[in-house]
Amino acid sequence: MKQIMEMINDPQRVITKSWIESSYLSDGLKLEHGQADLLVLPKTTQEVAKIMHYANQNGISVTPRGAGSNLVGSTIPNGGIILDLSLMNNIIELDKETFTVTVQSGVFLSDLQQYVEQHHLFYPPDPGEKKSTIGGNVSTNAGGMRAVKYGVTRDYVQALEVVLADGTILNIGSKNIKDNTGLSLKHLFIGSEGTLGVITQCTLKLIAKPSIIETMIVGFTSIEQAIANITKVLQTLTPTALEFVEQKVAKWGENYSGFEFPLPDSQAYLIIMLDGNDRNAIDKQREQLLTTLGNVPYVIPKTPAEAAQIWAIRGSLVRAVEAVTQQDPIDIVVPINRIADFVNFTKQLEIESGVRMLAFGHAGDGNVHLCILRDELDEAQWAIKLQQVHDALYQKCHELKGLPSAEHGIGTAKVKYFNAAIPLENRLMMQKIKQSFDPNNILNNQVYIKGNHH
What we know:
Blueprint: H1 2-8, E1 14-16, E2 38-40, H2 45-57, E3 62-65, E4 81-84, E5 91-95, E6 100-104, H3 109-118, E7 121-122, H4 134-140, H5 147-150, E8 157-163, E9 169-173, H6 186-189, E10 198-205, E11 207-208, E12 212-220, H7 223-228, H8 230-236, E13 241-246, H9 247-257, E14 268-276, H10 279-293, E15 298-299, H11 304-315, H12 317-322, E16 327-333, H13 339-353, E17 357-362, E18 367-373, H14 379-399, H15 415-421, H16 424-437
Parallel strand pairs: 2-4, 3-4
Antiparallel strand pairs: 1-2, 5-6, 6-10, 7-11, 8-9, 8-10, 12-14, 12-15, 13-14, 13-17, 16-18, 17-18
Helix pairs in contact: 1-2, 9-11, 13-14
């Protein structure tokens, strides 16, 4: 590894095996750890290219990472080099005339959002982990609460700079809105979880910042009633965000955040966000929705701070559970008309298995988040129960024509369920694509796409 130290020429950015902190050997859950020979923190694309060229020539595996917030094992290394891109965190250019911003891949989502909003622009993708990096968001095609109106990360990637396994630097995509010039290579890298190349720079589409953002929380007598009204909401308006949560689940967020949900007598809620620039239009949408829903209790926060408290409770649910007990997070997606079927199944499975589960999620796009709680189970019991619960959940997901991941990715944690959900022909094609970009199979070779065997 002496050659890499010479390439970087900064001993603080090249860390040898015995000095690598354990957090770099895991993912966001920090429950499983791998091992690596070297941790390298490049600052430029040229440094990344040199490292990849050397690693490829010598058959050394490389695991790229950003903030390490991944939840499915994609950043757990299997020997070789950890390539940490967190120091590549510069905002390179804000181009107001083309409504684009170009950033290095290590920029935090929260920093990007704050920066562009200071210039009265808006980056719509809004995954729950705001301290995730843009490169990580692109690599997992991150979604979030605003996806129901604005779409996911893929919809905002204009161009990418990517370093391939052999050190070749690709610049793909452009600032042009329309592009039908050849194959769209950038879309292969979006959601690829670091298996095809190392994303070093991203040019992202922006829109004008909405001047009005309104939150409404609607109460129901049961989660079944709340979910049954999702279709009515989507037929009446296009919400910016549409979330469902039971009162007993919201209590976790209340206890963790210190805030309180309104409508304490309701057993379940839909949280609806509207945005735009026309106050009359938003008022009309809200009135139409309330007429459609009938006589239901609702609250519209009077101030942005009150609205922020509601979203803070919803956004803190996973952390609230982690503060009390070990948990396994699931992000299954089903067709929106099957959300109720899946949530009801989780309740039945909870009773049959004796394992507590908290279901909530993005009602507008069928993304059900599920926290599976360990509680008092010992290590052996937890392993057995978790496997049984996983098998049942993903089987039900498959029956409902859903998919094993909405936005977390596959990584190492969901390989079994990925193989069951995706036809063999599709998987073989993915492997051929992997082989063409990374014939020596050095890039994230521990995750689901294996390049040199079927």
